[in-house]
Design a protein that fits this description.
The chain is an alpha/beta fold. The protein is about 35% helix and about 30% strand. It binds S-adenosylmethionine. The site of S-adenosylmethionine has 17 residues, from helix 4.
């Protein structure tokens, strides 16, 4: 379901990015399997909280920032204005279906998507990966039912669990981080 953020939501997200960015978003970016030349997809990029740290790790690579919200994408363009290796894209089916990405990640996105929409989103994400490509998500652990749906759909789309961990994130609480390989 599409929604646009309020000015207050954008302000609060900017504030937490400024003061907690290193502890909340950089820790996730630093664990992504990136060497510097990959093609990477940030699905549900928001204001570019994680993308900001990922873009720095891709001197020879490319980052696609995708979001359903035009307003978040505009804020993301501002966050990432100093980088030249980024494409911004508003989500619409079936834009993701070419198998071009080495890494795709979702940071606090999938739990917000309805089960029926996830049935379209997760196959599209799986298809967007090259063979051997990696899908990483970090989602709130307390949403146990949603996490079960996400895992079932990912595994049903022939991605295999490589690693999983629980992290306690400042402001966001406990989250599940899982890495799948195609
Ligand atoms: C809680 S925010 C997280 C943003 C960012 N990943 C972060 O961690 O700061 C969720 C984001 O997912 C986006 N989103 C929700 N449903 C989506 C969909 N179906 N396709 C793409 N983006 C979506 C929202 O617009 C929002 O920017």
């Amino acid at each position: 379901m599409k929604y646009e953020p309020t000015g207050l939501e954008i302000f609060l997200t900017r504030f937490s990015f400024l003061f907690f960015g290193k502890f909340v978003y950089k820790t996730f970016a630093d664990r992504l399997p990136i060497d510097g030349g990959e093609r990477v997809l940030d699905f549900g990029c928001g204001m570019g909280t994680v993308a900001y740290f990922v873009a720095k790790k891709l001197p020879q690579g490319h980052l696609t920032c995708l979001d359903i919200s035009e307003r978040w994408l505009n804020v993301c363009r501002k966050t990432l204005r100093s980088f030249g290796n980024i494409t911004f894209q508003q989500w619409a089916f079936p834009v993701l279906i070419d198998e071009s990405f080495d890494v795709a990640y979702c940071h606090f996105v999938l739990h917000d998507i309805s089960d029926s929409d996830l049935k379209g989103v997760i196959p599209a994400l799986a298809k967007s990966l090259k063979p051997g490509g990696v899908l990483v998500f970090r989602e709130p652990l307390k949403q146990t039912d949603k996490i079960s749906v996400i895992k079932r759909l990912i595994e049903g789309n022939r991605l295999f669990l490589k690693d999983s961990r629980i992290t306690d994130i400042p402001l966001l609480g406990n989250a599940l981080e899982s890495v799948y390989i195609k």
